[in-house]
Task: structure prediction
Amino acid sequence: MPNIVVCFKWVIDEAYIRRGSSGELDFSSVSYKISDYDRNAIEEAVRLRNESGGRVAAVTVGSPEATKGLKDALSRGPDQAYFINDASFENIEPSQTSAILADVIGSKIEYDLIICGEGSSDLYTQQVGPRLAERLGIPCISFVLKLTIDGNHIIAERKVEDGVEVTAAPMPVLVTVLPDINTPRIPGVKDTLMASKKEVVNIAKDDLAQTYEPTLQTTAMTAASMERRCVKFGAEPGDIAGFVEALEKEGVLR
Amino acid sequence: MDFKLTEEQELIRQNMREFAEKYVDPIASEIDENSRHPVEVFQKLAEGDWMGIPIPAEYGGAGADYLTHALVVEELSRSCSSTGFTLSIHVGIACMLVLMFGDEDQKKKYLVPMATGEKLGAFVLTEPGAGTDVMAATTTAVLDGDEYVINGTKTFTSNGPTGDTYFVFAWTDKEAGRKGMSAFIVPKETPGMQAGTHFQKMGLRSSQTSEMLFKDCRVPKENLLGQEGRGLVMAMTGFDHGRIGISAQSVGIIQAALDESIKWSKERVQFGKPISRQQAIAWMIADMATDLDAARFLTYRAAWLKDQGVNFSKEAAMAKLFAAEAAMKHTIKAVQIHGGYGYVKGAKVERLMRDAKITEIYEGTSEAQRMVISGTVLR
Ligand SMILES: Cc1cc2nc3c(=O)[nH]c(=O)nc-3n(C[C@H](O)[C@H](O)[C@H](O)COP(=O)(O)OP(=O)(O)OC[C@H]3O[C@@H](n4cnc5c(N)ncnc54)[C@H](O)[C@@H]3O)c2cc1C
Result:
């Protein structure tokens, strides 16, 4: 009966981000959600537990305000949650997140299988899963479409460029899953109400073995914008030259 | 003062939004067109414990508060107000009546299967000659041995053709006036009770509305709800609860009208710019957003008062009056903002406008709400 750990991130729901009048991103009326693929990760962990027994622990690193995220995650079926929180964990980068997760999972949680989403809805760096596996010294299988537990092994179907690759790895193992793997449930009313009755282990910054400093610096963030010049070009050589000329004139090509 | 919902309320609301987008939006237009009760949606609602939210867990419900129920009716109605209403009358009136007035056996036998969503409830009060004037009813229930014998004709029963558990109001002692009416639980297929064919309506089309005919319909004595003579009080208490649901339904309609109007007015270009940049249109949207908040806060206050265990009759009537009239007013504006495109079948605003009208009529017309409100403030 495997012990399954599932990692999730509580992110800004991109649907609520607006473009400010001078092109900046406006976060003033945003709402949060569990990162899309992490919902698949949770669903898969719960599905495997329901099939093979064992336990599911959901783990997140974030700001202390993310309590709603914990309830959301627990309402989807995990048995308990680890909430690694500090005000400074709000905007950390993948290297830090994975290091903090490895610190906690490695020292405090028994695991046979760790499931992560392929990437998060906000940054989508696809780094946390592989970095976490590396730090824990366990195999990592990415782009997973289908998972089965077979004795001490996990069998994973991976999406690769020209088909599907079937891989097996001995547990403990980490997998990162794609949205195709399942359809996340919509929690029922009782699931949501019961969520706050499940066990949550709070872990503060001081409980970690060390501090993990950022290596990246954000210098600016602006909204993508699109302006139409309403100029049409055909496929004739002359048109193509005109097209290149127009791009140069607009400063798109230099 | 705190205008924040709890985290659970927010999550439940978001989950219902997702539910409605997934299961209701795709069929809303079809069930309106075909006047079809979406059984498949109600099965899913039952699976997710959505059909007995404010009913304690021991009686099959989710054991949440009434405000949570209102939030769910609102979000469901934002996608399809007929579906939202069917849920509202089932929980707000049918389930609440047994919860408040039923004895332990009745709760086990009738409330549990309703709160779990296995059975659907119906409220059978209105008669052809007795709408706003409930006292003009003529349906009677006469005790004969261990059974009551019900005779009469009811009309406009929501869930009439599709219900399982009917709450029927009849005179047990006409002479006693306001203390002469009683309420009975009549299960589907009780001999002597028959639902008519459902009416084709302007709006609210997927909700099934019909006559209910009672001809020597016999129910055992145990099916009397509460005591004899308390029927009118129960009906009025049922209305108090139901009206919060109708307010929530109306809020969902206004929210949908606003969503559609914002989307359309930003996309539709006339005179070289989106019509949202015409002040005439922008101000309609400002008024819509303002009345939406007003309707919503009146609704939440009424639900919150209910959850505090204090009297909320006046506040529920105010919420229902304001929200219903705002729903009608702003769905008309939403069609206006859409121009000809809003007048064509398939446009959501067209359905919203037809659906809005009923909120000013049932569970007490707007005039009836004003009677309740003025009756209290002028007391
Ligand atoms: C779709 C639909 C679903 C319904 N569902 C149910 C249900 O599930 N169960 C149920 O029991 N009933 C139901 N009803 C009935 C509904 O509650 C009544 O239609 C409503 O109470 C009004 O009654 P009426 O239609 O007889 O109108 P009337 O009472 O005849 O009213 C006609 C008009 O006169 C006004 N009026 C009446 N009396 C006064 C007065 N004293 N002062 C000022 N104005 C007055 C009214 O406000 C209205 O504008 C439903 C009706 C509809 C259309």
Observations:
- Residues B 89, 123-126, 131-132, 156-158, 201, 204, 209, 358, 361-365, 367-368 surround flavin-adenine dinucleotide (CB under 6 Å).
- The mean pLDDT of chain B is 98.
- Chain B has three domains: 7-119, 122-230, 233-377.
